[in-house]
Amino acid sequence: VLALAGPVAVVAVVVAVVVLGSGSTATPAAAEVLHRTAAVAAAAGKAPDMPGPGQFLYSKVKMVELVGWDPGGRQVSQGGQLKYRGAFNAEITTERESWWGARGGGRQREVMTAPPRLVPASDRARWKREGSPLPGDLDPQHEREEAAATAGHGPQVLEARRGVYDIKIPRPPGRGLGPNFGFPDYSRLPTRPEALRHAIQGNHFPGIGNAPDGADEPLDTKETIESLFSLLSAPNVSPALRAATFNALAEMPGIELRTDATDLAGRHCDAIRYYDARYGWANEYFFDPDTSAILGDRWVVVKPGVSPSTDGLPAGLVKRETALISSGIVDSVHQRLAPGA
User: Fold this and answer.
1) Shortest CA distance to 219 belongs to which of 20, 34, 77?
2) H/E segment holding residue 270
3) Bridge partner residues of 330 (DSSP)
4) Which one of 106, 197, 280, 324 is CB 3.0 to 4.6 Å from 100, fit for a cystine?
5) Interval 47-75: pLDDT, tens
6) Higher pLDDT, 254 or 83
7) Mean pLDDT of 159-175
8) Residue 283: helix, strand or coil by DSSP?
9) Residue 325 Cα to chain centre, angstroms
């Protein structure tokens, strides 16, 4: 999701999924709110402007993520845990800013804004004894090694110190990444809800994101919901397509509604929730029903031990949570927007 997690997430969008029965729908309360929000989205007017030559799409995201890392081998598992001896696992809180040009190139800056919350908490004493190492790019030693390895080519390190990683990414040579990578072309997706749901589920539109031509592996219900919500978070989706996406979500089974939700930024909002019994964790997606704005998402452990991904984790642990603080077009990789923009 470009708006929530930067350009890499857009590149990783793969639109594929299993066709569900037409009788399967969200709970009545969730479906009602989603249909109402769809009407708000449809009335929004034209699609947001996209960056032109010399411009960048800026976004600022607050994030909490379970990260596992090996201080010696630099192996990092984001959104999951490393279970072998000597590894550390912790919830890492950061603010991530990104500037992304239409054909690649830009800047990414990540700042750790709170001490790591070790999982389990009993590992904190060992973590301190070993020098309080941080995962990956947030660790000064790793940053120095990466800066030396990429000197003269690749990303330019603008700032590298403990808990801060700031890089400028050069635009690829030639024509750059192309429209299907920096900002996928969603114009061919249907704007009828059922047709959109089937198109996403069946991967009838190869070439969007990094889905290879001919890829037809179906996604399950959880993955379908993720793909639809990712579509809502994309910056270049028309009001008609956003409306169709909200209506398509209302057709998905197992979706529940929370009207008393609060996102990571402290904003009161609605959330749709889907619990996946196979893995033991739930996905929650935050939005403002009055404006149709997407605010963020959260993955939380519900039943530990149901699958390897939740084994050994306490119930209620957040595996990943994001909150979009601001997003919009800027004229340089040093320009920022005020929160709420």
Assistant:
1) 20
2) strand 268-276
3) 56
4) 106
5) 777 888 889 999 999 999 999 998 876 67
6) 254
7) 83
8) strand
9) 13
Residue ranges with strand state E in 214-287: 256-262, 268-276, 281-287
Tokens 């929370």 sit at which residue?
Answer: 258
The shares of helix, strand and coil residues in the chain, as percent rounded to the nearest 5, are 25, 30, 50
In this structure, the chain runs to a length of 341
**Distance separating alpha carbons of residues 141 and 71, to the nearest angstrom:** 10
> Using alpha carbons only, what angle is made at residue 100 by residues 94 and 102, rounded to the nearest 5 degrees?
160
Round to the nearest angstrom and report the end-to-end CA distance of the chain. 18
Contacts of 31 (CB under 8 A, 6+ apart): 25, 250, 251, 255
33, two tokens: 């709110």
Q: Are 196 and 190 in contact (CB under 8 A)?
A: yes
User: Do residues 89 and 67 touch, judged by C-beta distance below 8 A?
Assistant: yes
* pTM of the predicted protein model: 0.85
For every residue of 159-206, DSSP letters joined together read EEETTEEEEEEPPPSTTTT-TTTSS---TTS-SSHHHHHHHHHHT-ST
